[in-house]
């Protein structure tokens, strides 16, 4: 089961063995288990080779029904690995009451893959991820897991791949750092990178397309249908890019320059993913740009750039190049498609017939953002009191200073409580989680819940989506709105 | 007349003399001239001691009727000083046709002032300024003058005073720079300041209360009723604060610290104006914080801090302390009222009964801003084509990358043309002026013109004012809206 969790995960449930069945148990295939994933079909889960019908337990689940439902029709292990609280005898005793049978023994072998498929070697992913695209793999954690932890567990960190995941050998991996004109280039092994001072920071990454699905509702856009989950937070460790560039002989120059990154992922024509950031940011020790080789204390998972990726705090995910192969300093931005013909913002009036990509700057720092993760749109909440949870973040190291929440669509506001780590001035690289416990106004049958954040430059989110709509569906940071029903 | 223009202005009209009248001319008092300031009463102006009735000329004025109307009932000299194009024989010939008389000779003497008034010694101001408060003096240029020039002429630069204007002698002026613990303090004369490398930058200053009047329309706020003109741009020169602090022995420390400024303006109890900025900004040469002694090539006008003021590019006007007397480095922000009990942003839900000033950060960098300066609200525009002009700016050195303009209240948008100087990356300290020539849709009887700007972090302005309303009426940066009628 360990591969299900990716390299960074720990299998929490490890002492389980199939006991010799007292009587001959019912035998089910995984396919049969999968078909039991709703109250109507009953809710089955597996642990090891045992099958359980937990329909009656769902509403009793201490973490809430929605969390258990994420595992409906499949194995519990990936979720128990995230939440180690489950690995206790009394939990297994509860579960044992619901046993209905066992898995067919031949159903545990991994399925064979077609080797002609360039994605055949992609890693196995966590089942909780909501997949927006399988090839290339793009997926986000469900909202109710996203803000369960300040640090997003590696297996459910949102994944944004542009190409198949390369399978790199850490022994032979080399990072090519092009030297300045007349200087010497570096060819760094992982061990070489470990020799630089190890720098650790907590950084939130957000895809430019986070919350794109809200723009699609206004008018069609080109891009993956991200919900609110194309954002996650990890504790990263690695060498500082400024140290590596200095070692290669680079220094800040008077003229504008750019550090270009190339990934080792490539399409069938050999074109690699690429992006760039301004040299001034790369060389600034205070900007803390990393060549990261650890994510939450583990080697990077393959989906997140093993063995080395760039982490550019405060900057759009697209510049955090994974599977990093090459670093160079150039007078111009990267000529990559993803730097020059994508990841830029335009006026709502611009369509594909008239768009001029050279007229807009590439997205670097992102604007202030927030979203509600609980309750979910369309959910029914109890009258009395409602708990609202979410995240808020801003680009460029700007700290979130306040989140306002409305229950009436924006007419009146309450200030949410900010959780999470205290933020360093000018280096607020990570999000704030927030929550609000608010009385449900008596007699209300529904609530239009809205959130908006303010950062320390006092930038705010725009009220509505349509006026920031753009043909690529990026930079979707209008007030987040969730409509819920109230039980009578 | 020269004093009318402030120290920085040049009197353009200088060879005018009253000719011996051919016949005995009509003699008028200034008071009488002042009463002729509208088409109904006829429009009079003066130049030197001559009085002109320019009612018939207003619509022929090449700069537009609204510009000439700014001088209605008063002298032309302050406006001719701003627009030197007037200082030509053929302009005076045109004017001569409209002569109706001369000013009473005893009416040129300056009026006497009450010496018990602490504001009695305030400088004489330019008549074009729209005064929001006389004591202390707070005034803004009218919108149609504001965007006439990329650099705002000194006499009409918005003025935000908190106290009477001190009258300082440049010979005896001293700036006290407190040294680090155990170190030596500096006591700098103007000549000492001139010894530091002279640094020159173009910087836009904006009051936190700019556009407050739009918040007042939602609900009462405490503060001056600024329209869109509490923002102006000048070319500043002075010593870099980082050089002066370094000379005093200060350096960046690991812990957070603040540079506190004290003005030489003070109230009757001796309390001076004060404010602070983070030490990290003060010490960063790239942040270009100035101790400015020149404004647009002239010594600072008295209203703008003569002889020395702070200029903190990208930061709210309140930190640009004028008539600077003292600089110190402290572990905490300035204890000044204006740092701790003012110039902070709050949720719309916070009123004076519950406000906790310690709960919000002091405003430093300002959010992205834009406004329409032409046409004016309520104006009637010609059918056919309309020209829309305005300004856009963002705090923190973030460049304005786009201004969207709508003629239909925000349903559809057009991209405006950005004028003004090219902006340096991360150091876009000055505004962009913009304009749009757009066809007026056929049959439209009115237009709801709206503008919104985007900065290079892709932050945008919020759609509406109410959700950013706050009890002090600061940070008013919603879309700017102007309603105009169209001639049939």
Automatic annotation (TrEMBL), chains A, B:
One of its GO terms (molecular function) is sulfite oxidase activity. Pathway: Sulfur metabolism; Energy metabolism; sulfur metabolism. It catalyses: sulfite + O2 + H2O = sulfate + H2O2. Residues 25-104 form the Cytochrome b5 heme-binding domain. One of its GO terms (cellular component) is mitochondrial intermembrane space. InterPro entries: Cyt_B5-like_heme/steroid-bd (IPR001199), Cyt_B5-like_heme/steroid_sf (IPR036400), Cyt_B5_heme-BS (IPR018506), Ig_E-set (IPR014756), MoCF_OxRdtse_dimer (IPR005066), Mopterin_OxRdtase_euk (IPR008335), OxRdtase_Mopterin-bd_dom (IPR000572), OxRdtase_Mopterin-bd_sf (IPR036374). Keywords: Heme, Iron, Metal-binding, Mitochondrion, Molybdenum, Oxidoreductase, Phosphoprotein, Transit peptide. Its EC number is 1.8.3.1. It is found in: Mitochondrion intermembrane space. Its cofactor is Mo-molybdopterin; heme b. One of its GO terms (biological process) is sulfur compound metabolic process. It comes from the Eukaryota. It is an enzyme of class 1 (oxidoreductase). Belongs to the cytochrome b5 family. Homodimer. This is Sulfite oxidase, mitochondrial. It comes from Ursus americanus (American black bear). The lineage of its organism: Eukaryota, Metazoa, Chordata, Craniata, Vertebrata. The gene is SUOX.
């Amino acid at each position: 089961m360990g591969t299900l969790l990716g390299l960074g995960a720990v299998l929490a449930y490890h002492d389980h063995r199939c006991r010799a069945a007292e009587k001959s148990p019912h035998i089910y295939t995984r396919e049969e288990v999968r078909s039991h994933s709703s109250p109507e079909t009953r809710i089955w889960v597996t642990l090891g080779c045992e099958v359980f019908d937990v329909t009656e337990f769902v509403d009793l689940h201490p973490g809430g029904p929605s969390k258990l439902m994420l595992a409906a029709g499949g194995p519990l292990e990936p979720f128990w690995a995230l939440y180690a609280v489950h690995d206790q005898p009394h939990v297994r005793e509860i579960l044992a009451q619901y046993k209905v049978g066992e898995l067919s023994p031949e159903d545990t072998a991994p399925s064979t893959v077609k080797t002609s498929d360039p994605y055949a070697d992609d890693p196995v992913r966590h089942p909780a991820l909501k997949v927006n695209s399988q090839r290339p793999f793009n997926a986000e954690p469900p909202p109710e897991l996203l803000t369960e932890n300040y640090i997003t567990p590696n297996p459910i960190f949102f994944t944004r791949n542009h190409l198949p995941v390369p399978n790199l050998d850490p022994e032979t991996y080399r990072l090519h750092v092009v030297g300045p004109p007349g200087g010497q280039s570096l060819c760094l092994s992982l061990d070489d990178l470990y020799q630089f001072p190890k720098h650790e920071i907590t950084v939130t990454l957000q895809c430019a397309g986070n919350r794109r699905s809200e723009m699609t509702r206004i008018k069609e856009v080109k891009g993956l249908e991200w919900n609110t989950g194309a954002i996650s937070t990890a504790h990263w460790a690695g060498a500082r890019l400024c140290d590596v560039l200095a070692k290669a002989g680079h220094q800040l120059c008077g003229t504008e320059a750019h550090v270009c990154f190339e990934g080792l992922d490539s399409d069938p024509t050999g074109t690699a993913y690429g992006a760039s950031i301004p040299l001034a940011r790369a060389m600034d020790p205070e900007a803390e740009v990393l060549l990261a080789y650890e994510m939450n204390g583990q080697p990077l998972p393959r989906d997140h750039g093993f063995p080395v990726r760039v982490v550019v705090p405060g900057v759009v995910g697209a510049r955090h190049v994974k599977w990093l192969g090459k670093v160079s300093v150039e007078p111009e931005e990267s000529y990559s498609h993803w730097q020059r013909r994508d990841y830029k913002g335009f006026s709502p009036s611009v369509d594909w017939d008239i768009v001029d990509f050279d007229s807009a700057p590439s997205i670097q720092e992102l604007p202030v953002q927030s979203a509600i993760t609980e309750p979910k749109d369309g959910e029914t909440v109890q009258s009395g009191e409602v708990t609202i949870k979410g995240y808020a973040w801003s680009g460029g190291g700007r700290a979130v200073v306040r989140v306002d929440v409305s229950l009436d669509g924006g007419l009146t506001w309450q200030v949410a409580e900010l959780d999470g780590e205290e933020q360093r001035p000018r280096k607020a690289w990570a999000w704030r989680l927030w929550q609000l416990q608010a009385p449900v106004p008596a007699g209300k049958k529904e609530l239009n819940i809205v959130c908006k954040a303010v950062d320390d430059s006092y930038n705010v989110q725009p009220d509505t989506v349509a006026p920031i709509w753009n043909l690529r569906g990026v930079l979707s940071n209008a007030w987040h709105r969730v409509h819920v029903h109230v039980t009578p």
